[in-house]
Hints:
The complex is a heterodimer.
Chain A: E1 2-5, E2 8-11, H1 26-35, H2 42-58, H3 64-75, H4 82-88, H5 93-100
Antiparallel strand pairs in A: 1-2
Chain B: E1 5-10, H1 19-31, E2 36-41, E3 77-81, H2 82-87, E4 99-102, E5 108-111, E6 113-116, H3 118-126, E7 130-133
Amino acid sequence: MAIEVNGTSYETDEEGYLTDLSQWNKDIANKMAEAEDAELTSNHWEVISFLREYYEEYQIAPAVRVLTKAIGKKLGKDKGNSKYLYELFPYGPAKQACKYAGLPKPTGCV
Amino acid sequence: MATKKFMYVNRKAPYGTVYALESLEVVLIGAAFEQDVSVAFMDDGVYQLVKGQKTDGIGMKNFSPTYAALGDYEVTKIYVDKDSMKERNLSLDDLQHLVWEDEDEDYAEKNSIKLVSRDELAKILDEQDVLLNF
């Protein structure tokens, strides 16, 4: 599979996750969101950049429980809860946000 | 479901076989089930925790940074066999500094790695409900 953004084609796996995370850019994230009828706000971007930083440091996409806790620590308890994160990413915060962030699917996520 | 004591025992060098990476992935997946999880490193397995790993030359992904995420997954008990370290001329300073944050104490950082003797490790192994060897 592939996703076409600004005239360039980017390879993805069968679930739409970017194959090469170094190719990621914001336009790709917007395009992926558009395909799922979502619009990315600054609250979404906050989570997406958090995930990219987490991956950069630990080389994994965090499980949702870990993400929730870490967001709570970094951005405050009002954001570090599953209600807030599921409102932003209704298909599953780890799963959907990781996809937009250009990361692989979180380990242990089915 | 009652909580069981799970221990993952790592005995092999990080690269060359897929055991170390597989073990790490299983630990992370297993951590989601809220069991009492601990991890042990012995024999060549102690090399998995050595800091400053570079894998460019062997064309494999360096997954060692992921051990630092174990604390986030609430895996806070990491036992390293003292004798295996000694046999390989390694000291605690050669290993990554792994910590976990205690939420109940305002995220105070606590050490996860505990050096244990073979006797101590044998005792800990004996206390487990489930042992997984890699």
